[in-house]
Amino acid sequence: MSTRFRGSQQHQHGSSSATTSSYTSSAGLVATLKDKSADELRKVLSNKDAYQQLLHSLEEVKIQDNVNDELCKENLQLAGESVNSFHCDYAIRWLAFS
């Protein structure tokens, strides 16, 4: 498990820290939306791609995307190790019964 994920997970368990983080995230979102014109806000609300672009530009979402990417990479690595272990176990059993 990555250090960043463990840190995020621990951060979520502290109630006052999580509340502060929530306010910070909300403030960032509000600041981002305040900078948009009415036309830009309508576009975000009516266009899925514009909404996704805005969503993924937010710092908290970027962090979560990075955590997700790290977990996927680690999952693939563990799956590969598991497959290799299976092949070794299978070869040992085959040799033992030969």
UniProtKB/TrEMBL annotation:
Q: Where is the VPS37 C-terminal domain?
A: 34-82
Q: Which InterPro entries match?
A: Mod_r
Superkingdom field = Eukaryota
**Where is it located?**
Endosome
Pfam families cross-referenced by the UniProt entry:
Mod_r (PF07200)
Please note every region of biased composition (Low complexity): 7-23
For this record, an example GO cellular component is: ESCRT I complex
Task: List keywords of the entry alphabetically.
Answer: Endosome, Protein transport, Transport
Region Disordered, annotated ranges: 1-23
Q: Name one GO biological process term.
A: ubiquitin-dependent protein catabolic process via the multivesicular body sorting pathway
To which protein family does this belong? Belongs to the VPS37 family.
> Under what name is this protein listed?
VPS37 C-terminal domain-containing protein
